[in-house]
Write a structure and sequence with these properties.
15 strands; 13 helices; Rossmann fold; single chain; Dihydrodipicolinate Reductase, domain 2; nine-stranded mixed sheet; alpha/beta
């Protein structure tokens, strides 16, 4: 295919859109699977993924031509343009270089969060996309869920008057945190990114979208309190499979990943597949004995915080308190929005609206009557994001997508400021014209 075939999607109504994926792991696979299931499906035609098992699984699932299967994303970017759009779901520190390469090649880009690991690289991404004249959006899927749509409508309708403050909780969950941020790819800030950026840049983005005004000041506190050598129990071994006290440890890798083999469709099954590559007893036992996911959580090389709070003051005076923590059951986010006329309490699906005048509470199921449910990726956010971006490409309106680069850069700047505030123990003032 020559690049000229992809010049403007909106100029070719009815043509089947095509997608390449740089990073065929969990998120890349999920976005591709979502795209091929749309009412007007997108055809997945290329993939780049360094891990053999993940690459073969992806290519088989989406019937990718052998010539379009690459080990390295750079080889995909160097080839003649193969698709209308590319999903960039690589490791965090690879985002900037990849976006610059694909933008120059003329791909429209869906970029997994975070945009990049530094503010400077985020700016480079925006500048490169604008210079190339392509469309790009960040996968801030929280903006697109039916839950968010319902909440935004209540706020726009004035159901609680003017927002005064918001209290928001991201309960990461002990098991998920141990998997991803103690043993997994995001355990070290120097190899990936800080916890707030990797896990919750879209929480900050989401909160900013609710207030609808710029952040003026931010402070933050947090540390690596528990998952370190100082808290290692007496007698604990370096690996769970060798540990005499493993049966009494809440963070046992052996228990969690073996349970995943027995329940392949569960969250434990998903994590076991990630850690072992194959969901078999033999593969999991080998990974427990030799791989990073079999390490004791008190004997890993992790350095990201395991709990953090962020306080934000917005232009106009509204305040937000955000908490993310490993020490939770691992449930949906919890949010309370306090307004001048009422209060909204939400759990990711249901919204409870309390009206000050009537003193009545109304419960709204945000998924009632929807064609997809919370069982879909990120509560329907994956699908809604993909629908919005693909529709925008077809109609020539992709530049108006809610999680465009301008909006995403603004919220990322707040995240970087919060990290500076945490490290320096200070309050960071932000210009309101960013």
């Amino acid at each position: 295919m020559s690049g000229s075939q992809f010049t403007n999607v909106a100029d070719s109504p009815g043509r089947l859109l095509t997608m390449a994926v740089a990073g065929g792991g969990a998120r890349g696979f999920a976005y591709a699977d979502t795209a091929v299931r749309l009412p007007e499906p997108v055809r997945v035609v290329a993939v780049a993924e360094p891990r053999t098992i993940a690459r073969e699984r992806f290519a088989d699932r989406f019937d990718v031509p052998a010539d379009n299967v690459f080990k390295d994303w750079r080889d995909l970017a160097a080839a003649p343009r193969l698709a209308d759009m590319v999903v960039v779901s690589l490791l965090d520190h690879q985002h900037m270089e990849a976006v610059l390469a694909f933008a120059e090649r003329g791909y429209h880009i869906l970029l997994e969060k975070p945009m990049a690991t530094t503010e400077e690289d985020c700016v480079k991404i925006q500048e490169a996309v604008e210079a190339a004249g392509v469309h790009a959006a960040v996968c801030h899927v929280l903006r697109y869920t039916p839950y968010t749509v319902a909440l935004q409508k209540l706020l726009a309708d004035g159901a609680i008057g003017e927002i005064v403050s918001i209290e928001h909780l991201e309960p990461i969950g002990h098991s998920h945190f141990a998997h991803s941020f103690v043993r997994g790819n995001w355990r070290r800030a120097d190899e990936s990114s800080p916890l707030l950026l990797q896990k919750s840049c879209h929480d900050i983005d989401w909160l900013m979208s609710l207030i609808g005004r710029p952040v003026q000041r931010v402070s933050s506190f947090g540390s690596l309190k528990h998952f370190n050598a100082a808290n290692r129990p007496e007698g604990a071994a370096d690996r769970c499979v060798d540990c005499s006290i493993e049966p009494d440890c809440a963070f046992s890798a052996a228990r969690v990943y073996r349970r995943g083999v027995a329940a392949p469709d569960s969250f434990d099954g998903y994590n076991a597949l990630v850690m072992a590559g194959r969901l078999t007893t033999e593969a999991v036992e080998d990974a427990l004995a030799h791989g990073p996911y079999g390490r004791c959580v008190y004997a890993s090389d992790n350095d990201v915080v395991d709990h953090q709070v962020v306080q934000m003051e917005f232009d106009g005076g509204a305040t937000v308190s955000f908490t993310l923590t490993a020490f939770a059951e691992g449930a949906n986010r919890k949010t309370r929005v306090f307004g001048t006329r009422g209060q909204i309490t939400g759990d990711g699906r249901n919204l409870e609206l309390f009206d000050f005048l009537s003193e009545r509470t109304t419960v709204i199921d945000s998924h009632a009557g929807m064609g997809h449910t919370a069982a879909d990726g990120h509560g329907g956010g994956d699908r809604a994001l993909m629908e919005a971006f693909v529709r925008g490409l077809r109609e020539g309106t992709a530049g108006d997508i809610p999680s465009g680069l301008k909006e995403s850069l603004a919220s990322h700047r707040v995240v970087f400021a919060a990290e500076r505030a945490r490290a320096q123990g200070t309050v960071i003032e932000l210009p309101t014209d960013m």
